[in-house]
Fold this sequence. Notes:
Chains A, B: Its cofactor is a divalent metal cation. With about 625 residues, chain A is α/β, with parallel strands linked by helices.
Amino acid sequence: xxxxxxxxxxxxxxxxxxxxxxxxxxxxxxxxxxxxxxxxxxxxxxxxxxxxxxxxxxxxxxxxxxxxxxxxxxxxxxxxxxxxxxxxxxxxxxxxxxxxxxxxxxxxxxxxxxxxxxxxxxxxxxxxxxxxxxxxxxxxxxxxxxxxxxxxxxxxxxxxxxxxxxxxxxxxxxxxxxxxxxxxxxxxxxxxxxxxxxxxxxxxxxxxxxxxxxxxxxxxxxxxxxxxxxxxxxxxxxxxxxxxxxxxxxxxxxxxxxxxxxxxxxxxxxxxxxxxxxxxxxxxxxxxxxxxxxxxxxxxxxxxxxxxxxxxxxxxxxxxxxxxxxxxxxxxxxxxxxxxxxxxxxxxxxxxxxxxxxxxxxxxxxxxxxxxxxxxxxxxxxxxxxxxxxxxxxxxxxxxxxxxxxxxxxxxxxxxxxxxxxxxxxxxxxxxxxxxxxxxxxxxxxxxxxxxxxxxxxxxxxxxxxxxxxxxxxxxxxxxxxxxxxxxxxxxxxxxxxxxxxxxxxxxxxxxxxxxxxxxxxxxxxxxxxxxxxxxxxxxxxxxxxxxxxxxxxxxxxxxxxxxxxxxxxxxxxxxxxxxxxxxxxxxxxxxxxxxxxxxxxxxxxxxxxxxxxxxxxxxxxxxxxxxxxxxxxx
Amino acid sequence: xxxxxxxxxxxxxxxxxxxxxxxxxxxxxxxxxxxxxxxxxxxxxxxxxxxxxxxxxxxxxxxxxxxxxxxxxxxxxxxxxxxxxxxxxxxxxxxxxxxxxxxxxxxxxxxxxxxxxxxxxxxxxxxxxxxxxxxxxxxxxxxxxxxxxxxxxxxxxxxxxxxxxxxxxxxxxxxxxxxxxxxxxxxxxxxxxxxxxxxxxxxxxxxxxxxxxxxxxxxxxxxxxxxxxxxxxxxxxxxxxxxxxxxxxxxxxxxxxxxxxxxxxxxxxxxxxxxxxxxxxxxxxxxxxxxxxxxxxxxxxxxxxxxxxxxxxxxxxxxxxxxxxxxxxxxxxxxxxxxxxxxxxxxxxxxxxxxxxxxxxxxxxxxxxxxxxxxxxxxxxxxxxxxxxxxxxxxxxxxxxxxxxxxxxxxxxxxxxxxxxxxxxxxxxxxxxxxxxxxxxxxxxxxxxxxxxxxxxxxxxxxxxxxxxxxxxxxxxxxxxxxxxxxxxxxxxxxxxxxxxxxxxxxxxxxxxxxxxxxxxxxxxxxxxxxxxxxxxxxxxxxxxxxxxxxxxxxxxxxxxxxxxxxxxxxxxxxxxxxxxxxxxxxxxxxxxxxxxxxxxxxxxxxxxxxxxxxxxxxxxxxxxxxxxxxxxxx
Lengths: 635, 635
């Protein structure tokens, strides 16, 4: 299936955009007319540039305010169309998008609309051009794809067809059901996702669309309908997004391609599942050239976390880990790399033995440079990731050393896929001289509950898509909470079994600690690591006794707590004494505490305990931590 | 009238907020409960701090989900309230805000709500505390102030009254008419403005409120109703705004105070106007202590513009002005300051003789450091401005030199008020050795049409309020347009007679030229100066002949123009040859062209011609300029 993207979706000059689009291996573009109008480049020059880059100009868009107009306006529009047809011929572009009329002059008369579109199709036919008619969600009379389809059917002209756009359908809560019956009259498909927002449809459309898999629409269901209509491409993106407009276009173009590959893969998967009972689906799979990535493997938690450090930090971070109840577990046979363990948690301190660790340290100082994710199928995970445009990471390994299937996540942290058959230590047995386990319980920390990743605003959608497409995680609803210097937006991502949890945090202000840390990390950095305890009160009491410093919580917080939840007074006093925060949802309770940030670096640790099926991350308590830290700084 | 602000309106820790609030000379605060809950400061400490700063704690807010609940929940809420009463007593705070219930458990039963609020008022009375009941726009059953008022009347208890908030009224398109009849039961008034937005009322409320005079609500009409109710304070601000949360709080607190002073002044003005026919209004004026600023004087255009330059820039900018058809008009008697003139335009190049020019040059390089605004009452203008919290600017003047009433605008550009009786040259006759005018027409530039000011996002509302409150300008609807690297938001501000026009531009992206210039200027800088010509085609043709460089406009723009407007083909070709942009509204036409930026500095010139009553600024054409400039850079 040919893949395409509208030029409006990216930042930069038209020339820059084309280069980014070609570099991300698209087959073609939708030319957004203002991009051409403002370019100091003739149609012939643009055509040559596209040809040189291997890009087709699939669609010229938009042609506005055409159908259902009074006669005089209609005639002027036909003249206008002829000028645009001249341009399309010069560009070598075969198809024009006519979006439904928004003019206050438009008449509510589908028969008139049909008559006028027939005249336009007739003129297009003389030049062997085609017209696609699309319902704009804010069209004056034609808002739904079915209304546009009704008019296209009335016209019944070979040079007039239907264009559908998932945004216009879902933003009006309309259903794509029935697009499958449009058949060969479906001339073009535009796919857009978006977050659900209580916003005017026009503002929503012009500022907040994003790529399939980044938002909350049923884009897979929509595109399945198109494929079932027999549509075989181009599959195209027309994305108006304020952040994308302001982000270097190479990065956004990679996300764009990833979103289409993911979308095709999801639809293929659905058709395959239907295939046994559904001959049509099986046949479509034969014919449609849908992208076929390997399935998402099941992940089973975080196998290890690796920090990039220098010698001094190896010492002080090692000391902090010991304070947290970790044991020194071993040393790499040939490199300055050490291992710490507690319960099922493994932490590696890498004195920059690998290039990835070196690079991360040089950007961010001591910080997480790599994660290991546990899975039954590491090679499958790698193949899935590279099929979806992740770069493979080849660690420099010595002779006979363990080699892991690994990728570079957006922004540079390395993700290793670790065979769960190796167990907790198997991975390290070959390369490390391991100490014997002494059976000490440490502080009772058992596993990594979640990782929180701090992102600059231009990285959030990239990471949502990476988590969804490459790792198979779903996004919970985003929450916003207040830091003393601005709002933070937080999105939990996890698999259905809740075995892998990542929290994507973004500061909406430039003045918060989190924003500064995200900036300092080059846009993406692990902000905190949450360790799970089976008895958090006991763990914290033990750790406080060793002198570990937690972020102090205001007494006022504990005075207020019993007004929010029905809690035993003695329990509240234990929380107060330990400085543990509390949250409750319909599913269960959550206890958590934060350590002070590690020696001025951007990261810290959280200790958590989930009771029953609590599924969140205590976001409601984050302001108590952030306010406390700010007060510390100001004193 | 005592003035107050909710702590949620500002950034920072609670301690920081109190200091900023006191520094801006507020009399009190609304304590937003989470600010206290998260503060590591006891109630007694907070009380002492407020007393030390001369701040009352006027209101404790919010107490949620109280009225109209099933019995068990009601009883728990009473217990909760008693805990908060304890806290209020410790704080010395006399009034609690109860906002209407949003709980799904709330019952649609005003009689029950009244009964429960009576019980709460009764308990408050025992401690000599008071309860104010406020309708939240998204309350489950009580959304409008009249519904809340109905319940307060049913209760009829001396310790229960009504709280009104302009946001909750206007966001539901409800009217404040009738608040005047509430009388002494009006316990507290919260004033918020907001831009009109097609957004969910909750998101709108929580992220986009702003100070009176910064938005589009009829805040004056609302507050007039409160004053007519006999309300005598506190006048308070409760503003949830994402930008304010992320901006240094001293700056925002100054805006907050300015907004209240302006609001009081506007209501006073209305009552004065009504006073002759309206005895009640006259009496209120006697009693109410409404702030009384001098009226806004009429402005009559820009008298002069002053650039801060060094010697080299004085030369090259002088050369550019000559190219633009300006004449050298004279030299300051004692300072390195020169004057250029054309038509009614006067431009001063100041080689940093004054401290303001020196400071501006050191921040921004060559740039506008001062404006002169023509008015019949310069001293009145100064008094108005200082009454509304503008800092007076005292220029260092030599013996016998002209001294102007002057202020510092937000961000540092100096605004001088120039007596229009001085005519075009009178201002300069004393201090300058003037050349005789040679009568040459120059390029036919006659006046300054407008100034465009480039602002960082945290400066926009500040400037809207400064323009409205200090200069008496009104805001037109904001427009957004696309730079190749992000969106620009532009707001025209002008007086009713259209004699003074300022355009406030803000980049929504950090990567546009405009954003970079605004950053480089320290947040506020004059971005371009638009000169009016009576015959722009002639002016541009003459200037091009002198070799002046304009931003080149794409041929495609002119190919497209006849499809947008009915224009004579020969006229379009003249526009193309001259590189002039064209816009048309229902009121008239607009022709304009942009010079290339001055030697890498952040500013440039625009040449414009308004035909008939065109009232905009050609925003639709800005993308053609910006795309062209970006292409230039990339080649």
